[in-house]
Amino acid sequence: MSDKIIKKEELTNILKALKETYEVIAPVKENGFYSFKPFKDGGNIDLNFTNTRLSPKSLLFPQSERIFEFNLDEKSKDGYIVKEHPKDYPPSVIVGIRPCDAKAFKLVNINFDNPEFKDPWWVKRMEAMTFIGLGCNEPSSTCFCTSVGCGPFNEESLDVMLFDLEEYFLVRALTEKGEKLLKQGRVDKDVDEGLQKKADELRIKAEKKISSSVPTDKLKEKKINDLFNAPFWDDVAFACINCGTCTFLCPTCWCFDIQDEVTKTVGDRIRNWDSCMFPLFTLHASGHNPRPEKVQRVRQRFMHKLNYYVDKYNTGVACVGCGRCVKYCPVNVDIREVFSLMNGL
Amino acid sequence: MIRYGDTIREIAKKILEEKTVDLIIGFKKGTLPITTEPVLIKDTQNSDQLYWDSFCNMNLANYLPKRGEKIGIIAKGCDSRNIAVHIVENQIKREQLYIIGVPCKGMIDRRKIVSFLGGKEVREVTESDEDITIKGEGFEHTLKKNDYLQNNCSTCMHRNPVIYDAIVGDLVEERKDPDPYDDVKEIEGIGLEERWESFSDLIKDCIRCYACRNACPLCYCPTCFVDESGPQWVGKSIDPTDTMTFHILRAYHCTGRCTDCGACQQACPMDINVKTFTRKLNKDVLDLYGCEAGLSIEERPPLDTYKPDDYDKFIR
Lengths: 345, 316
Fold this sequence. Notes:
The complex is a heterodimer.
Chain A lengths: L3 E4 L2 H9 L4 E8 L2 E6 L25 E8 L11 E2 L7 E6 L1 H14 L7 H9 E6 L25 E6 L2 E6 L2 H9 L8 H17 L14 H5 L4 H6 L6 H5 L6 E8 L2 E8 L20 H20 L10 H5 L6 H10 L1
Parallel strand pairs in A: 2-6, 6-7, 7-8
Antiparallel strand pairs in A: 1-9, 2-3, 4-5, 4-11, 8-9, 10-11
Chain B lengths: L3 H14 L5 E7 L6 E6 L29 E5 L1 H12 L8 E5 L8 H8 L6 E4 L3 E6 L2 E6 L6 H4 L11 E2 L14 H7 L3 H11 L8 H5 L24 H14 L9 H5 L7 H15 L27
Parallel strand pairs in B: 1-3, 3-4, 4-8
Antiparallel strand pairs in B: 1-2, 5-6, 6-7
Helix pairs in contact in B: 8-10
């Protein structure tokens, strides 16, 4: 399918048309910051953002999710039977997702959907999801996507890419899913050569605007023990207050905890985001904690992203360079510096 | 205040050289404009990293508990009060500390700058005594620092350190404003249901990352009540009841101990003003017992003691 063009003001109507078939999710500004929320007919969509504060990961992997339910009443006919909590997986579209956040879904997918393990809820939601990306004309100073295998117009994890050309959006279908969606939204006007050229220039210009970079070239050859026992961890960890801001805002942090919550005889099994920053994350039932100190927990986060993941999957680091942890860490622990330390060891 | 940096580095170098202390806890320049990072300095080669500006928001007293060394620590008014709280609560010994006091004219709230810029980014920042100049792509603004202070700094009545071994500049004049609790009175003035609604609304974006708790010097419990697993006191999900339980219980644990340093609010990634809860309790403690936390290293915290002449009958 060739690239299409729409006027910016047409987007709302196209999304309204898509709403007949899809759940449409878009960036919305509320209380001064952006997040992905259901698109309303009134057009609450606001695409003038750099990165949403929270990554969109909760759309596929909610912070708290009821997964099973059970009854502890022995006399009840379903007593002591764990049942899957019923859920819908309607076809959905995320509009305006940044290429880095979409790439993050691809990285996390390796964990939730692989030959060995399939997380049913993630897999079903992923299948139902179509990603309409929005290229970044104005990347932030904390973005370092181009040095971690992504970029402001990276297409690899999207179904459709939007290029913001002031009055117009150039619309590029990248997969069959994307083509189907554009047909449904009646996006069929071919782009002319002039705007096509403008879009190409925009991409090149945006890539040049990425002012921040991290070294990754030597990470693959590093030995686990050398990095694990590196002398710099105490310094890296000193300022860290061991909160969950970095892990909860991160689009590629996928760790979770499973909890049973019971009221009288009825209970729910709930899956919640967890964080390697928390002592409870590794506390054993025996009372032993293999990561009792802050420095061990801080090391774990960076080792996982820049060493274990790299070694295990051979697809690069588990970081897309969105810069959220850099921007929102209360004490300025900067992952870009840790990249340099680990790569340079 | 910006000039304090040189003095801080000088003192730090001297006390490290003379082995008065084993290490210094201070701030270094952040990797981003308008941020700083707490740093631990062990030798004189690195003491030049020590830095000071109006974005040294975090409370360094947070880094003291459980340490055994002799420590030099940089302390604003609020940090010094939290150091005093730590001493009273046996988290650190006075003899272990060499407190480098910083008379403080208030820290700038980076969110207020970010919100003023409405999406544009600060690339460079310089400051003078009264003003701050921020530059970015296609803009340059000079702002009055006083208009962009953290809320708690605008009402702070203890800007000078209450205990110190060295001071980096002349003491600043303390405010005489008699009443810094307008915001609390507003909440006290509304009805119960409305108040509950406003609290629920306040924490609705909370993601349970515990940045507020972990930035707080008071929260040094070996295991926080929310991290207990046997018995488990609080649910782990983002159910509003559990989230509210965390915030309210945490605030109550800080009663009579909170110095209103603002670290919790500054740390919150979701811009929640968690101080709303602790400020009410600070006001209550002041009204009921005439106490403010951390003003002395001799006096026990008000909820940890009793007086025979207490006006409440039940205690006699």
